[in-house]
Amino acid sequence: MTLDAVLARIDETLPEALDRLIDLLRIPSISTDAAYAADCARAADWLVKDLQSLGFDARAAPTPGHPMVVGHGGTGKRHILFYGHYDVQPVDPLELWDHPPFDPEVQDTPKGRVIRARGASDDKGQLMTFLEACRAWKHVHGQLPGKLTIFLEGEEESSSPSLIPFLHENREELTASLALICDTGLYEDRVPAISTQLRGLAKSEFTIHAASRDLHSGAYGGLARNPLHVMAQLLADLHDAEGRVMVPGFYDDVDELPDTLRQQWQGLAFNHTTYLGDVGLSIPAGEVDRTPLEVLWSRPTAEVNGMWGGYTGAGFKTVLPAEAHAKVSFRLVSRQDPAKVLNAFRAWAEARIPADCRIVWHDGIAGSPASVMTISDPAFDAARAALTEEWGRPAVFVGEGGSIPIAGYFKTVLGMDAMLVGFAKDDDQIHSPNEKYDLSSFHHGIRSWARILARIA
Amino acid sequence: MTLDAVLARIDETLPEALDRLIDLLRIPSISTDAAYAADCARAADWLVKDLQSLGFDARAAPTPGHPMVVGHGGTGKRHILFYGHYDVQPVDPLELWDHPPFDPEVQDTPKGRVIRARGASDDKGQLMTFLEACRAWKHVHGQLPGKLTIFLEGEEESSSPSLIPFLHENREELTASLALICDTGLYEDRVPAISTQLRGLAKSEFTIHAASRDLHSGAYGGLARNPLHVMAQLLADLHDAEGRVMVPGFYDDVDELPDTLRQQWQGLAFNHTTYLGDVGLSIPAGEVDRTPLEVLWSRPTAEVNGMWGGYTGAGFKTVLPAEAHAKVSFRLVSRQDPAKVLNAFRAWAEARIPADCRIVWHDGIAGSPASVMTISDPAFDAARAALTEEWGRPAVFVGEGGSIPIAGYFKTVLGMDAMLVGFAKDDDQIHSPNEKYDLSSFHHGIRSWARILARIA
Lengths: 457, 457
Fold this sequence. Notes:
2 copies of one chain form a homodimer. By secondary structure, chain A is of the alpha+beta class. Helix content of chain A is 35%, strand content 22%.
């Protein structure tokens, strides 16, 4: 069987694949820091050269920021786009790294062999799983596994400023029938998983103004409105005692979980005690009549991400401040519209504050809706079967509590669904010192893509 | 009449009195800044010399901080202590001063002539009204108006670290039958006033801890407890919808206002619309079934003076923080005990937070109780009559929303009641740039003390 030959080739050449990854990891492609712009360009060029060596027609396309790597190759009945990003997070605090972040090291740990470096897991190690699968395939078959477009971004860690314009400008070139995204992880660190729904996000920052200046709490305390009290009341009223969000209409466009997914999620036997226990908590918050996994994956939230006002320094100042501030974000699901949610929140908040206070909103009405993939596409079941074979455990469809904006943009700008498959582990310490990627994630990741591509491309 | 002769002498020598005040104001006796320690000592020496010129047996008594000025003189049936402070607030932001803060200037303003300098009102101008009254009295009578102790502090603006030990160590020397304190103002800028009750103060700073580290709101949002929500709920629950403080037992030791004071306060016709309107507010907060003046002077409060947590910088971070912080203070009245109030607050708060959160308290159980003067002492009515004569308006007994700790210490350490009489105006800009003292406050202040001393000493 030719797939077996591809898998064998992957196994045999793992050391070389690892060397290539280490080579890429040596390039400090930190996208947020202008000082590393040349390194970002260097990483893009490295990838273009690697893609060309695989037979792709590849280029580093300039943007106002860092270049996009785009490559086309292969033939087949279905056009598949693969997305990853070659930029990495900053490394500070550098003193917390046990080893220089851009001097990759293969280490043996109690949990197995790992590649330790910034970007090892997020996302260079993950994106290379796909390229290595293509390489082995090409070696065995003499051609790529299908009609493929490779699209690698260099600004994912710095809010992707060039992405949407680039998608618009290159719509035709980039629109495939399905996008594969490799930037997620295994479920509970062991179970191969396909993310089929991602929550969206809407953010709001605002100030409640009361008196025209800070007041002395002796001279005014009790009589003058304290905006910290107004803010506390407002934020407390955002949820009822059962954890429901109290903004009118908030749940209007929230769909119930389909029975098939509900059953499958029940089968995941998510252990919220462990999940919360790992971070020192024990009592689930949120809607009391929902399962913990629903709360995380398929229910919307309203969370205060920051609040501040009055005197916050050392010691005490008996001040009644003139203002109080908060940042509130909403995780969105199903068909919730960010603008509708934010407008409803604003109206709700403004109606609740005393008439001699006022709210100033510091941001526009914007956000990203949830992404819900069309899992009826046979590629999803095919990928599930492929992953099940590779990992020896039934692969699962999971949700993601967070947002992966690229999936939404592929849908809204290009009309293309995405399938998110990734091999990261919870302890990969992405965005933190001592980031690592398990060698098993890398190895089985490459093999997983070979199996998936054999079925869908 | 000899009082008339004293008053005439005051009128005639006002320019010289003003020169002396200006001389004292030139000394930058900023107590919080060690760089000005020598200036504080110089101000103390200046006052010692001035007291000696009036026949007082005076000295600058050393302390671990700045010296205390103590002077004794005169004879009489009643021993009266006078308290003021010679230290001043820092002057920054210096660029907001129209004139150097320690180069005093007499200016004509639309509201009358003023002395502009740091300390002009708080408290050098006020303390000099008493010394000038003594000076005129001495000139006319050849002796001081009674058995007097002058006690001038040099650390009032820096939390009086040496005060309580000094009172303890010099208890016998400093204990008189009544203390006069000149550090307050006219009621509504025109009505002579005697402060007969001051609210106390208890302070609490605490942190609510939830997760063991900051969490990503995508991965944990909804399921993990957000301590900002817990804090908002706690602070919102601190008051009910009618403005009452919900800590059990909070009102146990709060007395109703005596009928005599209630009637007198009603006569003050306090205009809360103007009072709040001056700072941009219109709706009284606090207990709905209490008059605004009660709320300010004779009712206790719970006020959040600072709260913070999560991401408070520019932009957005979708974090579920590990902790939330607050500073809460209580203005106390009647017989409320600071320790009892703080312990009740702690117990109340700890019982309300989720079982997997915890509160860490950052301060001890301390504070100052309210001061309620024994106005049955005939000195109070005598002073009221004297002030009424001088100002041509019925003098009033008022409360103070703030705390003046020295009054409490005189009571608790020395067992001595205090009568607070002062001539400052609301627009004196104490603690702010361009501090001033009205020449009319200075002039009538001196005359007021002459009249009061004629009646009580």
